[in-house]
């Protein structure tokens, strides 16, 4: 029986890497049998399938994606689209780790599609869609009315957003409950006697800005605390800008005695600004900050933290995209992580 086009393409482009012919030679089987064993064809015995797949894994065999695409119309690629100038490295590495864990045992692999601040965020999405470079897409820095989500919905491209939109359109997402984070942070600060609170918020154009701000202001009203406005910077500003503005704020007669910070990197700048003003963390002012790793207590034990798990986010986003590709309804592929409380430093046992 003649081999299918995928097998021919695999061998034609196989210079310098293992091919179906390599696997056939190593297993003593025919190329067609090897090809079908790799595809879990039921007419191939279970022991033969297991042996072929084990050898393929050991020698690093990968099917030629051009051939796979010709045969199936799929690329077996998930693209993670990231703004490389805005995302901090811990976020990037943890998201990638989470996505990679989920797709490790699937035919899919991950590519990162970067874009810069000078680009239209829609540009890399258009490229992926128009060139058919990926079967599914993951995006971050989600906006309330996100043109990227609308574009992919209109074109039927499976995708998931890190964060929610507010367009009245149903699509997969994973989000952290930033309303609950801000609420818990304010309640905790009020519980330790802090009454004048400042919020270092996310950028106003992102959806989680309103979630965070609404949680903060609602909780202020609930506990009877007052807000000291700190809206000249966001977590997207540079460390030096946040440090300088914090120091200016803390030198005023009426200054905050508590901060809520939406990002760990920004929190380092807040603490530096507090200390530039001659004040002491934990005595004159307390700070509740989100973090994605256990680094903040290594920096200052007086900090109060709320953990956000970006590895979990990556895993949930990958599951959502794969689920949509597999035929699940987009509305069933939405998840929301809740904060588990404000944590003070605890010395190791």
UniProtKB/TrEMBL annotation:
Pfam families: LacI, Peripla_BP_1
GO MF terms, alphabetically ordered: DNA-binding transcription factor activity; transcription cis-regulatory region binding
Matching InterPro entries: HTH_LacI, Lambda_DNA-bd_dom_sf, Peripla_BP/Lac1_sug-bd_dom, Peripla_BP_I
Superkingdom as given in the UniProt entry: Bacteria
SMART domains in UniProt: HTH_LACI
Keywords: DNA-binding, Transcription, Transcription regulation
Residue ranges occupied by any HTH lacI-type domain in the UniProt entry: 18-72
Protein name in the entry: LacI family transcriptional regulator
Native organism: Mesorhizobium temperatum
């Amino acid at each position: 029986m003649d081999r299918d086009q995928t097998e021919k393409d695999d061998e034609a482009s196989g210079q310098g890497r293992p091919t179906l012919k390599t696997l056939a030679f190593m297993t003593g089987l025919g190329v067609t049998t090897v090809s079908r064993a790799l595809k879990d064809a039921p007419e191939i015995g279970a022991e033969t399938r297991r042996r072929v797949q084990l050898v393929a894994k050991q020698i690093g065999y990968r099917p030629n994606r051009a051939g796979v695409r010709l045969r199936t119309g799929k690329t077996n690629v998930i693209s993670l689209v990231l703004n490389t100038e805005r995302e901090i490295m811990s976020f990037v590495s943890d998201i990638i780790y989470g996505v990679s864990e989920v797709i490790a045992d699937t035919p899919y692999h991950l590519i990162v599609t970067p874009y810069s601040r000078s680009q239209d965020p829609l540009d890399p999405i258009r490229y992926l869609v128009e060139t058919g470079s990926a079967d599914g897409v993951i995006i971050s820095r989600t906006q309330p009315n996100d043109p990227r989500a609308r574009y992919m919905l209109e074109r039927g491209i499976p995708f998931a957003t890190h964060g929610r939109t507010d367009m009245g359109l149903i699509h997969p997402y994973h989000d952290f409950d930033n309303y609950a984070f801000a609420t818990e942070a304010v309640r905790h600060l009020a519980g330790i006697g802090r009454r004048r609170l400042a919020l270092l918020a996310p950028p106003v154009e992102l959806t989680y800005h309103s979630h965070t701000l609404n949680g903060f202001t609602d909780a202020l009203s609930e506990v009877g605390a007052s807000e000291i406005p700190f809206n000249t910077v966001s977590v997207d500003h540079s460390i030096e800008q946040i440090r300088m503005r914090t120091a200016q704020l803390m030198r005023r007669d009426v200054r905050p005695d508590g901060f809520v910070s939406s990002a760990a990197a920004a929190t380092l700048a807040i603490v530096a600004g507090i200390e530039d003003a001659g004040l002491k963390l934990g005595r004159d002012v307390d700070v509740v900050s989100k973090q994605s790793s256990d680094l903040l207590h290594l920096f200052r034990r007086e900090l109060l933290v709320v953990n956000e798990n970006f590895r979990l986010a990556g895993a949930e986003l990958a599951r959502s995209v794969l689920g949509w590709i597999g035929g699940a309804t987009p509305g069933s592929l939405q998840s929301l992580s809740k904060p588990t409380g404000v944590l003070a430093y605890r010395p190791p046992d």
